[in-house]
Amino acid sequence: MKILLLGKNGQVGWELQRSLAPLGELIALDRASNPYCGDLSRPAAVAQSVLEIKPDVVVNAAAYTAVDKAESEADSARTVNADAPAELARAAKLCGAWLLHYSTDYVFDGSGSVPWREQDPVAPLNVYGRSKLAGEQAIRASGCRHLIFRTSWVYAARGQNFAKTMLRLAAEREELSVIADQFGAPTGAELLADVSAHALRHAVCHDDVSGVYHLTAGGATSWFDYAAHVFAYARQCGIPLKLTETGLRPISTEQYPTPARRPLNSRLDTNKLRTAFGLALPDWQSGVDRMLTELYGR
Ligand code: NDP
Question: What's the pLDDT tens digit per position in 275-291?
Answer without folding.
Answer: 999 999 999 999 999 99
